[in-house]
Design goal:
β1 and β2 form a beta hairpin. The chain starts with a helix and ends with a helix. It has a five-stranded antiparallel beta sheet with strand order 4-3-2-1-5. By secondary structure, it is an alpha+beta fold. It is globular. The chain is built from nine helices and five strands; from the N terminus they run ααααααααβββββα.
Length: 294
């Protein structure tokens, strides 16, 4: 199979899910997101590029693809140019398609709603008159899978990559943008989170980073909660007491640990990065579907 087609199949569903969860819909949302990054220009560029790729790859809008840089024009690929492109070219189209009922649903599952990945074809001028045999061969080469077949191939390809750890659907389905998580408060009580902990290999001493699932049971109020009874220092408001299950692999019993998680570390592959667990995401999706049916 053509490598470009493979690449599209690998990422189409992934970017479509990101669009469903985190695709902005208004110019005001773009402005708010960029403002939240402060002076971090690279973070702004990364965010804008992802928003654009959600549409180019996830929605198969090849015609809104834009270069990230240009040797002949310094303005190309800047925060100003990409944000303008997102606002004037992409969101305008989304609004029009949404009104016309042509935009894929953000409520359904990606498998039900994702457009089949498309591939722009190159055309070449025909030289001379082809023979009957050559014409038949040409038609056979031009034949391509149906939309349903391409989408099914995309699903299968994504499953293979997830099993190999090359794609992470839990990361894709997070309801908040990477680095812009919610401020930890009492709304997280009862929620299942994954926290990226640093462990060390027993034999080599090399650091190992693992996403571990725990349940939030308490949130510090900043006035009376302490890490232990002997501690004099109060925990900051928003510190989370998380229940961790026993882990035989690392010889750990069930424990309750106070942890400080920051919104800027949300869904990041760093020590103490955090996100909603897969089981919590499924619960969120179920609640959303039930509300949509009412």
């Amino acid at each position: 199979m053509n490598e470009e087609i493979k690449s599209l199949q690998e990422h189409a569903l992934s970017f479509f899910e990101r669009w469903q969860k985190r695709g902005v819909e208004k110019a005001s949302e773009i402005a708010a997101a960029l403002k939240a990054f402060g002076d971090r220009e690279q973070a702004k560029l990364d965010w804008l590029r992802e928003q654009i790729e959600m549409r180019v790859i996830g929605l198969s809008w090849n015609d809104v693809k834009t270069p990230w840089s240009s040797s002949s024009d310094e303005a190309v690929g800047t925060v100003a140019q990409l944000s303008e492109h997102l606002k004037e070219e992409i969101l305008v189209r989304e609004v029009a398609q949404r009104k016309a009922g042509e935009l894929p649903s953000k409520e359904g599952t990606p498998e039900e709603s994702c457009p089949a990945p498309l591939l722009q074809r190159k055309t070449f001028k025909t030289l001379g008159t082809p023979t009957v045999q050559a014409d038949r061969l040409c038609q056979a080469v031009k034949a391509e899978p149906s939309s349903e077949e391409k989408l099914e191939a995309a699903k299968q390809r994504r499953t293979e990559l997830e099993e190999r750890g090359e794609l992470d659907w839990v990361s894709d389905r997070q309801p908040y943008a990477t680095g812009q998580g919610p401020v930890p408060d009492e709304n997280l009580i009862g929620k299942k989170l994954e926290v990226r902990w640093r462990y060390y290999n027993k034999h080599t001493g090399e650091p190992i980073y693992i996403w571990c699932e725990g349940n939030v049971v308490q949130v510090a109020d900043g006035e009376k909660d302490k890490k232990t009874a002997r501690c004099r220092k109060l925990l900051p408001a928003g510190a989370l007491r998380i229940q961790w299950p026993a882990d035989a692999e690392f010889d750990e019993d069930e424990s309750f640990v106070w942890t400080i998680l920051k919104p800027c570390a949300f869904n990041k592959d760093i020590h103490l990065g955090w996100r909603f667990a897969a089981s919590e995401l499924k619960h969120m999706r179920k609640n959303t579907s039930q509300k949509a049916r009412k």
